[in-house]
């Protein structure tokens, strides 16, 4: 009886996990084309992102297959010596499932103005805004997913990062 209680406690603790998911839109872009690159300001913002996240123990980097999302994640991937893993831009549920399978990891997700809020919502967060404007490149959504013996919880923090873009 005593051993089965200890085993149950051990198994319960082993199933506990916390993931911090950092969700951003790609940095400033040259044009609306899918193959568009980042601007000089965009590359600077990507470096700012790497500096902001360097101590966050990121172990998985997810981007859409587009150049600008990969360029935004590139400095952090290089700094941490991590590969960039692609996910389909839509539906948001595809990347949400990928995030849930990576329980216990801290993850950077780089998406687009029309997808990052859906990703936040898919993870259970309730963002304070209803859309990302075309000139907004500095939003950082941090979703903490915690699974414990008492159940699951989701916390959302909204920040900005990087230097403001010159008009």
From TrEMBL:
Keywords: Signal. It comes from the Bacteria. Coiled coil: none annotated. Residues 1-19 form the signal peptide. Pfam families: His_Phos_1 (PF00300). SMART domains: PGAM. InterPro entries: His_Pase_superF_clade-1, His_PPase_superfam, PGM_Phosphatase. This is SixA phosphatase family protein. It comes from Larkinella bovis. The lineage of its organism: Bacteria, Pseudomonadati, Bacteroidota, Cytophagia, Cytophagales.
């Amino acid at each position: 009886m005593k051993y089965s209680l200890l085993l149950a406690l051990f198994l319960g603790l082993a199933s506990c996990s916390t993931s911090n998911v950092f969700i951003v839109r790609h940095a400033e872009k040259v044009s609306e084309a899918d193959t568009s690159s980042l601007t000089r300001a965009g590359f600077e913002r990507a470096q700012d992102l790497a500096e902001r996240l360097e101590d966050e123990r990121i172990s998985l980097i997810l981007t859409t297959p587009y150049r600008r999302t990969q360029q935004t994640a590139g400095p952090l991937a290089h700094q941490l010596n991590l590969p960039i893993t692609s996910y389909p831009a839509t539906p948001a549920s595809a990347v949400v499932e990928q995030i849930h399978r990576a329980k216990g990891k801290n993850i950077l997700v780089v998406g687009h103005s029309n997808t990052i809020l859906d990703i936040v919502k898919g993870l259970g967060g309730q963002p304070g805004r209803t859309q990302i404007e075309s000139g907004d490149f500095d939003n950082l959504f941090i979703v903490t997913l915690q699974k414990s013996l008492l159940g699951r919880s989701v916390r959302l923090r909204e920040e900005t990062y990087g230097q403001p873009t010159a008009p």
